[in-house]
Amino acid sequence: RSNAMLFPVTEVTADKWRSLYNEKFLKVPNAATVTARDMEKLMHSCYFVHRDGELIGIGKADGDRIGAIAAFVPGAGRDVVLALAHALPEQRVTIEVATANPKARSLYERLEFIAVEERIKWYKIK
Asked: What's the pTM value of the predicted model, to 2 decimals?
């Protein structure tokens, strides 16, 4: 159990979330850049994750899927994932992770997620 809290992205905070995401995922192979136009679609499912008043990460939680997870404090990944999972109504949760991110994959395995599928690309480019 985590004492992290979720704060949903709003029109006022969307640019901050997008900036944090783009900065963090710049180094991740095949990760998409989030534009201002994308935020309109994502706003209902994107969150800031805080613990004890400090921003520790961001992520996306929608339906049964967690994605776009980024921790900003060393060792906070667990709390970010658990807070996002708590926001989902489903019992079975799917999490997305880049193959090129073995540290995250290891964390998810410790949290008892099971690898079931590998995708070459994360997003469809139009």
From this structure: 0.86
Dist. CA 7–CA 51, nearest whole Å: 11
Q: How far apart are CA 89 and CA 35, in angstroms?
A: 28
Taking the C-alpha atoms of residue 52 and residue 85, their distance in angstroms, rounded to an integer, is 19
Asked whether 14 and 56 are in contact (CB, 8 A), the reply is: no
Please determine, for residue 121, whether its predicted confidence score (pLDDT) is greater than 70: no
From 47, 61, 54, 120, select the one nearest 95 (Cα to Cα). Answer: 61
Q: What is the pLDDT of residues 3-41, one digit of tens each?
A: 899 999 999 999 999 999 999 988 877 778 899 888 888
In degrees, rounded to 5, the angle at the alpha carbon of residue 105 between the alpha carbons of residues 103 and 107 is 70
Q: Which class for 55: exposed (0-12), middle (13-18), buried (19 or more C-beta within 10 A)?
A: middle
Q: Are 31 and 60 in contact (CB under 8 A)?
A: no
